[in-house]
Specification:
Layout (H helix, E strand, L loop, with lengths): L2 H19 L12 E6 L2 E5 L4 E7 L2 E16 L2 E13 L5 E6 L3 E4 H4 L5 E4 L3
Parallel strand pairs: 1-3, 2-4, 3-4, 4-5, 5-6, 5-7, 6-8
Length: 124
Amino acid sequence: MHRTTVAGSLATSVLTVAAVLAAPPAAHAKNGDTHITGQGVEQTIDCNDATLFVNGTRNNIIAKGSCWAVTVMGSSNMVVADAVVNDITAYGYDETVFFHNGDPVIWDRGRELGMVNRLQRVGP
């Protein structure tokens, strides 16, 4: 038997075991993400366990229910969410995302570039 055959079989076995042992995510996002794009949009939506994407300037969004994730891009957008499960990501400047419930990962890409955003939990 050649070394490459043994090494190939071993690598395949290791990958198979790793895939079997990897824990699945605790929850999955649903289809039907909501995309809001524009300037000065004021809207109340039901997140329905999906991801909310807000792109533009001066949009004010109230997100009822539970969001899988919230992503804001642009400038001066404001999102107030009842709950965020997985993550909040902000690209841009002067973005605001407030949430009441959940323990999402907060990823502020704007701050990495020296911009100021407000991403935080607020009271009931």
